[in-house]
Please model this.
Amino acid sequence: MVSIAWLRDDLRTADNPALLAAASDGGAVALYVLDGESPGIRPLGAAAKWWLHHALKTLREDLMALGIPLVLLRGPAGDVVPAFAQEAGAERIFWNRRYGGPEREVDTAVKAWAAGADVQAESFQASLLHEPWTVRTGGGGPYRAFTPFWRTVSALDFRAPLPAPDKMSKAHRAASPPDGIPGGEDLADWNLLPRHPDWSAGLAEAWTPGEEAGLAALDDFLAGPVQNYDDGRDRPAKPGTSRLSPYLRWGHVSPFQVWHALCRVRGNGPGPDVFGTEIGWREFCWHQLFHNPDLATRNLRPAFDAFPWDYPEGSGPQTPAVLRGKGAHAPDQLASASRPDDLDALDAWKAGRTGIPLVDAGQRQLWSMGWMHNRVRMVTASFLIKNLGIHWRVGEEWFWETLVDADPASNPANWQWVAGSGADAAPFFRIFNPQTQAKRFDPDGAYIARWVPDALTPAYPEPLVDLKESRRHALEAYESIR
Ligand SMILES: Cc1cc2nc3c(=O)[nH]c(=O)nc-3n(C[C@H](O)[C@H](O)[C@H](O)COP(=O)(O)OP(=O)(O)OC[C@H]3O[C@@H](n4cnc5c(N)ncnc54)[C@H](O)[C@@H]3O)c2cc1C
Model:
């Protein structure tokens, strides 16, 4: 019997209920569909594509070790998956549930097709500790505030992680890929890796995509830094956080694995509990996306629709595609611009040449390794939105393009949080002062020295804006919508 495990944001072998179900009766085939075509599905950013390429390469090896072939296909999944299932003569298809609006529509369509085609289709909970429709406020609606949300969700019973198929039963493993399975496409033909120029050296130095590396990162973090996480999480110069975000984003590691491993190290101080709360923020972001499928494009608080943002010419929410075409992955060129005033404010922010050292350090860390420390994400986002007066959507798009952990829920939810337009958001008038933040969280300047070694040289730009003046402007603009 051929059973398909349709893998999506769950690129792992362990704690993968869909894979386990497909492998339970022999003849399992794993399928990955690169879908940039179904209506509303957000195309991956460039750093995410880099990650996906390596993730699929590693996954193929991990699956082969279990005797499960991985088939790669491209196109609208609502068409591609049924066509493949028919060609392969599949009798069963399994997947782990997704929570974005357009993705759910695709999954519903495939389920409807399966019902008509007499193919057994089953989906599972694997990517979130809670399913967004299962918890409600007293009034019956979705949660808009984190504390009551997490109080409810963290009281639920989270199932234990499942084993990988090989640990379950050798007898149920396919010894070799079943005959007659269509071959699929070559990963190399997908052109996910950057060329001309290849800007990915920093990403490759910083990260090893895949399940094994993700679980090792979890182990390393729980063996030490977690105990001091309550303070260490705010020190960008130190390895005080888990760096699990891309592994969770791509599902190399599941939240159930993280949660249960965390429970084993609890009890020695506040660190593990504070870390557990951050896992809760991930859940909360997905809760928001489920209930607001247009989270990346619409202010959750409509009052912000009237905010007088400045849009850099040719960008802004009306024309986000223009921004992508214009600025995406240009910092190499931006950084080599001869004078800082060759750059407009947005380009200077992207390139880490604003003349504000903590902001520039964060933006350069992002460009170099496809990741930025959370404290600094908040500071650079606040600077873009509040000191430069640029719409949060413009920054959200840049992060989407450049983060290896770019997440359809966490990215827009956090940008809206910083902007003040989101759920349980920081009030707009809370404007991070990058200098004060640097003094507090990078007191010996190690983080800035690491990423902005030119900060004290004459070549370093003058500050793009006066922090006090631009703050005053922002507050005046806010008054206009209150
Ligand atoms: C403007 C902005 C944009 C962001 N965009 C993303 C994004 O695209 N993808 C993403 O995973 N995170 C995003 N975050 C949240 C956070 O910055 C990262 O999750 C965190 O820095 C990842 O590092 P870590 O794995 O070492 O985190 P840790 O501190 O070790 O936290 C553990 C895990 O908890 C989750 N988490 C922690 N903080 C948050 C948070 N505020 N919101 C949601 N989940 C959280 C992540 O999955 C993280 O891996 C964003 C934050 C801001 C301020």
